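# step 3/5: fold
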Amino acid sequence: MKVIVIGATGTIGAAVVKALAARKHEVIGASRRGELRVDIDDAASIRAMFARAGEADAVICCAGNAVFKPFAQLTDADYALGLRSKLMGQVAVARIASERLRDGGAITLTTGILALQPAPGSAAISLVNAGLEGFVRAAALEMPRRIRINAVSPPWVTETLIQFGMDPGPGQPAAEVARAYVASIEGAEQGKIFDSRRS
């Protein structure tokens, strides 16, 4: 399969690229600063990315920004960032991909454990992740041309916890998280939220 990975230079995205390549998929990495550039906050940028990449069988989005800070400190701008970027940016990826992927293609978005297991400081991110999960389940009912849409819900990633000087114990290595993305595009599921700890 020819797979576009958005966010290919990030911790999870890079692991997904490696996992797909190991499975002999043709992988095209896209990011804000890579050879194939894309900004998911901008629908025109997403359309241009698909135009440059050419026909593809699947797209995986590991990109999107949101704010993690105490509830009392969250501003309108903080909420707006997550809604514009991680939520609506990925919605835009799915909408455009549903028009551009080959028949029977696959779309995989990224939510996160904070949708179902919130933590202090996660109000803005939990909102976005839960919204994405609802969108995926509903959009799956109406995908055209046998296109499938799913999402992966990663836990805290070990490498990220280490980067922030936190205890890596509760984390999952990015290479293990990547297996859920591979399962999403290679399988037959529709409207599923993959828990990477169980994939």
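# step 4/5: annotate
The mean pLDDT is 96.
# step 5/5: archive (pending)
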